[in-house]
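thought: fold this chain, then report.
action: predict
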Amino acid sequence: MIRSLLILCAGHSRALLILGLFVGIGLPGLAARMAPWLPHMVAVLLVITAFRIGFRDAVGALQDLKWSLPAVLVLQLVLPLCAVGMFAVFGVSAEPMALAVILACAAPTISGGASLALILRQDPARMMQFLILGTALFPLTLIAVLMTLPIAIDLRVVLGIALRALIIILGSAALGFMLRAWLLRRPSAHQIQAMDGAAILFFAIIVVGLMAALGPILRNDPMAALTWAVAAFGLSFGLQTIALFGLGYTPLRPVSGPLALAAGNRNIALFLVTLPPEVMSPLMIFVACWQLPMYLTPIVLTRLYRLAPAHV
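observation:
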């Protein structure tokens, strides 16, 4: 019964994401009650994702450090520094919108990236790879970027938060890998579908809590929400499109899909616990709007990702 339900979820993944968005926006009370549990829910999602991928596939993906490590450095260091330089030329580096774009470019990929990959028929193991590498490098790349901005930071706080995030990610992944090796070493096709459905279902549930900040903004200042949402969609979808087309004619074409997903879906929420409240307060509306393009990527960019090699 449960397996049939999870297989059904896997077959209706896009509808589940839309439902999660509507529930989060339409039921602000429920979203607010779920918000404090988001870190725990993300950890559970990582366990489910690691269980789905398995240790063997994850290790296989980690063997490609010769290109994945430079790719992460380009996404989290070169790209935000280019944004800093561009905004400096126009004299708007201190504007909230410019800061939001820079921080979004400096963040590692989201914890639910593997779920996006599953929906779009891309390699979830690659997304797990980018998540681990990006989070491990996050303290170094972030400090390099922040040093170019007029922001007062406590390096110990940044390092501490990044280390905690890495421990949670590695611990959750290790637990998922161990459970997979113990309970399901050779899954059948139906069991793989059920695991896909479990990851996608939990990903859709998490979005309800992420919408806690967006619902009130939409009701109180819809024009401001629209402006920031347009910026979020433009940055997220723009980065994915550029990455996918840019890599389509290079030796990295086989992994262009996961790289595009990693480029346009970043965990900007990490800055809520790494930067001072006075810095993040004006950007909270962007953090809320940023969730929209990420969860709508599998719905809006379906045709785009058909240009990338599918993962079987």
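thought: worth noting. The mean pLDDT is 83.
final: tokens above.
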